[in-house]
Each structure stands twice: as C-alpha cells, then as structure tokens.
Amino acid sequence: MDYRTIEEKENGILLKGVKNFHPKHIFECGQCFRWNRIDKEDEERFQGVVHGKVLRAAINDQEVFLENVTREEFEDFFKEYFDLNRDYDKIKRVLRKDPLLKEAVAFGYGIRVLNQEPFETLISFILSSNNLIPKIKEGIRKISVNYGREINYDGETHYAFPTPLELSRATIEELRALGVGYRAKYIYETVQTIRRAELLKESEEVRELTDEEKLFLEDDLLSIAALPHDLCHKALQRYTGVGAKVADCVMLFSMKKKEAFPVDVWVKKAMVHFYGAEGNNLSKIRSFGQMQFGELSGIAQQYLFYHARENKIRIE
DNA sequence: ATCCAGGTCCCAG
DNA sequence: CTGGGACATGGA
Q: How many CA atoms lie within 13 A of A58 on its CB side?
C-alpha cells in the first residue's frame, strides 16, 4: 500500500505516510484534463471535477489532503481512482532496471496512472487527436458546461462531464461551435453509437433483438472494457475518431489495461532517442514498447511521456 | 507567415 | 495491409 493511515477531517481526508503520489506529476502528466493548479499562498494545490464532485488535492511532506471527500467515498471510489491499490515501489523497481527508464522514473517519481471513467476518457482522447493539451482541456470544459450536470461548490459553479444520454442531445454544429474543429463529427458519431447500444441494452429486457441489433450491442463501453487486450483495442477502433493511439489511451486510463502502450509524438521521440527504435512506423514502435515493458507498458509509457514532454526532448 | 499539437480518415497502389 | 495528404483551430 502506498499510504499508511487515513484520517477523516471536517472537509476531507488526510492520507499519511504517502509514497509515490505527487499531485503535480499525477495531474500534469497528460492523462487527465479536468484538474487545474489553484495554488494558495504558495502551497501547491490542484482542483478537479471527478465522478460528479469537485475535489482539491495538496501535498505537504508525506501527507496528502483530499478536500471534499469523505472516508466512505474514498473507500468506495477515489482509492481506486487514484490507483492506490497498486504498489508503485514494486513497479518502479522493475522499470528502473532499464537504465534509460531510470531517468524518466526519477523525473516523474510521483506519477500514478488514474482509473478514470471510460466515456469521459473516450471523448477526451478523441478530442486530443492532433491537438494541444490546453485546447483539449478547454474543449472538455465547454462540453461539460453545455451538457453536464451543474455542481455548486465553495461558492462557485462547476459542471460534471455529461453522460452519454446528456451528450447525445448535442448536434455536430453545436459541438463545432465549442471550438473542437473537425473532431465535432467524431464525437457526435461516437456518442450516437454508444447511445444506440445503451438503448438496445434496455430494450433487450423486454423484447427479442434482431441479429443486426445484437451486433450494435457490442458498441457498449462496459462490454468492450471486459474484452481481452487485443479484442478491446480493435473494438474501440470501431468508434469514429478512434485509432490505435486513442484506443490505447482509453484502455490504459479507464479500463485498467496497463499493457497498452499509446504512441504519440513524444513517446515516439523518446523511443527513437533512447532505444534507437526505427522512426516513423508507429505500430512498430508500439509493439517494440510492449516487447520491452510487457504488462507494465502503459505505466512505463507514462513516465516516458511526462519526461519527454516536460524536457522537450528533441531528435535531430 | 509557416509550423505544430497525446492522430484519424480516406484513398491509391 | 501500408504509405501519404487533408483536416479545424489557434498559439508560437
């Protein structure tokens, strides 16, 4: 376990004896888009919207304070969200045997790979394609403001990421007006596909489905999450706007499939730079990474990505 | 102004 | 199946 004790306070919980947990690393390593830095009197603090709640997180020495979380909510949901059931010392010991990953782990020592919600993660990473992180965050924020449920906290209004039903009310034109560019169509089609599967799942209980309808059931995210790695990777790519990279991100960040190895421009640079992997061919770099890191591929990838991007690693 | 960003789609060979 | 160009958008 990466924390020793938990204490319930009036407005949150205090985790003591915490290891391998640094908010800055966790929230700025590119895996999530709804956490922002809101420092208070030069104390490093982050605020995020997760699971229909506004949370704040701060670290002081080895104590992590999570504001607006009860002990019960922590045990039921946020413990798993923060991946606190995983032993990162053990993972890092293995990864550090690789001399080049040793540097990346030393740099992002407080990274934990969050277990996020599949629908939000899917839409977020569809939005991420050929895009910049600040713009991805802005697009997700606007989608939430326009279609998500209102959350009032500490005198401010925030918005949860919409459910498939809520987002299914958006038209392509409306989405495009939020500044997401050509990805509006991808988001629209993916949401409609998911809604169709959800609706059929409900009607399945009252009537017999046709063969065609049964096929559409396979577009349900819960069913896809239950598939083994390769089938899951392929199934996700049936959604419009989802290729190998986005599918890997969804698997890694929301379906607990840590053997996924998303290859973006930065990981590609890191792999070419560190391992002399042959450039250009993304799918070769992907299998090269999985060969190298096995079931820890996704976590290794996250240390590499954070290190490469923060240090703006260049090749040639 | 041109280039680029946590890529994917679509088409030709 | 594989390789190349188009694609919205806005900041550097």
A: 13
